[in-house]
Amino acid sequence: MSEYPFTLITDSAVWETALSQLPNAHALQSWTWGEFKSRWGWSAARYVLGIDGKPLAAFQILKRKLPRLLFSILYVPKGPALDYNDAALRRVVLAELEAIAARERAIFIKIDPEVVKSWGLEPERPSPIGSKFITELNQRGWRFSAEQIQFRNTVEMAAQRPEEELLAAMKPKTRYNIRLAGRKGIVVRPGTAVDWTVIGEMYRETAARDGFAIRPLDYYLDIWRAFYDAGIAQPLIAEYEGDPVAAVVLVRYGSRVIYMYGASTDKERNRMPNYLLQWEAIRWAQAQSAEIYDFWGAPDEFVETDRMWGVWRFKDGFNGQVVRHIGAWDFVIRPFWYWLYTVALPKYLDFLRSRSHTS
Description:
Shape: globular
CATH topology of the largest domain: Aminopeptidase
Number of helices: 11
CATH superfamily of the largest domain: Gcn5-related N-acetyltransferase (GNAT)
Oligomer: single chain
CATH architecture of the largest domain: 3-Layer(aba) Sandwich
Radius of gyration: 21 Å
Strand content: 25-35%
CATH class of the largest domain: Alpha Beta
């Protein structure tokens, strides 16, 4: 297989066509995502391995040059895309990624592919492919990363089932709250391009209320608009008497719809708008013929101390399936600089932040 080289792709249509023919293709591997990240400090390069015009594997690499250094860091978000059942193909792709990292003078390259480690809670049902791939990564010198850029775990729902069946499978309280929201005057409508600023303000309010850090608002407005203009994103907005109280941004890519962003205000929370909003998001996924509705994110550990526990309790009510992925893995080219970047520098920044809080 090595006699068939990877091809650098510079045409968006060629790239999207190749991805559409591969399993495990993700929205974060889309041309739109790469172009978006190129406006925020990264550069994107896309490679396809094909035989006789048929793509076998593809990956989009994001590269960030480090200030004042001759080195860079590389990241393949939610990739590479390939049939992970093919052991020989897995080895070829990993070898190519390692070679690119060396050629690009990278400190390390990070991947976090959509490879399942196990399904469910207790007892977990392990994935044989996930176990084999983890073994291969360890044998090749890849390291499980302490920095998981994306959510490692998620919750998925098979979307193409009758609505009555989906509702019946939910926990009684969730089903009750969906109906309560409708009775109490919550209305969900599709959003348009004019709604992004309102959604952004709600997202900022959500972050402040729930205590999680966000990037500058322009970052989110940029990707929402880019995805929307590309026909990938759809906002849904929950209103009470015409006043927006909650919103979601859904991302449709391949056979999956992802609930990628959610926002809400403190207004009318007793009317349970988020429950009806989530139900309408699932119904929208059905209308798009999506096979999977992805709730996008679940705890790393299913214990009450996990930062995602509150979000998990809400998602759990819809009775999807917990999917645990293998997570992010790093191939290190320069160990000293890797230690400096991943261990020493974060500790130093934490120290500076602690000093600023006490002064």
